[in-house]
Design brief:
Shape: globular
Strand content: under 5%
Order of helices and strands: HHHHHHHHHHH
Length: 174
C-alpha cells in the first residue's frame, strides 16, 4: 500500500496533513493487525478441521501471532517505503515468503543442515516466530517470551527503519 500510494497523488495529499512520519506508518500498520489476527483465527479453524486437537492454547497462539504479524507488517512497510510497487511485489511476495519458509524450521529440521545455514537461520527472526508458536501450542509457556523478544526486537528495529526512511522520503518529495 505504501509503495502504491507513493506512486500516486494520494501521498502528496497525505503530506499536507499535520501527521508526523510515525503517524503515517502507524496509519498503515494498525488496520493490518486485526486483519492478521483474523487470518490467524481462520488458519486455526482449518487446522482444527484437519485434526489439530482443540485447546485454549490455540487462542493464546492467535495472540502470540500478533508479534510475528508485526514483524511482517514492518518488513512490508520498509520495503514499501524503499522500493517501487513492482519491486515490493517481487521482494515481499516471492523472496520474503521463500526466505522465511526455508529459514523457519517449518519445511525441514534446520539442525539437519547445520553449519552456517543453521547459524544464519537462528540469527534471523523467522525460526523464532515458529518456535514461539510451537511452544504456545505445546503449552511450553516458559519458551514463548524469549522467542517473542527476539522477533519483537527485529520488528521494532525494522519498524523504526521504516519510519526513518519514510521521513527521509517525505522530505525529498516535498
Amino acid at each position: 500500500m505504501v509503495s502504491k500510494d507513493r506512486c500516486t497523488a494520494f501521498i502528496i495529499r497525505l503530506y499536507a496533513s499535520p501527521l508526523k512520519p510515525s503517524g503515517y506508518i502507524l496509519g498503515y500498520t494498525v488496520p493490518l493487525i486485526p486483519m492478521a489476527l483474523l487470518q490467524t483465527l481462520v488458519t486455526c479453524l482449518f487446522a482444527l478441521i484437519f485434526g489439530l486437537p482443540f485447546s485454549a492454547n490455540i487462542l493464546l497462539a492467535a495472540v502470540v501471532s500478533i508479534v510475528p504479524a508485526f514483524l511482517y507488517i514492518s518488513i512490508g512497510l520498509l520495503c514499501g517505503t524503499a522500493f517501487s510497487d513492482k519491486m515490493v511485489g517481487i521482494i515481499c511476495g516471492a523472496v520474503l515468503t521463500n526466505l522465511s519458509a526455508w529459514l523457519s524450521n517449518i519445511w525441514f529440521d534446520i539442525s539437519l543442515v547445520g553449519g552456517a545455514f543453521q547459524k544464519i537461520a537462528e540469527f534471523l527472526p523467522f525460526i523464532h516466530c515458529v518456535n514461539a508458536l510451537r511452544a504456545t501450542l505445546e503449552g511450553n509457556y516458559s519458551q514463548i517470551i524469549p522467542e517473542l523478544l527476539w522477533v519483537f526486537g527485529y520488528a521494532a528495529v525494522i519498524f523504526a527503519c521504516a519510519v526513518l526512511l519514510f521521513n527521509r522520503r517525505m522530505k525529498q518529495d516535498k
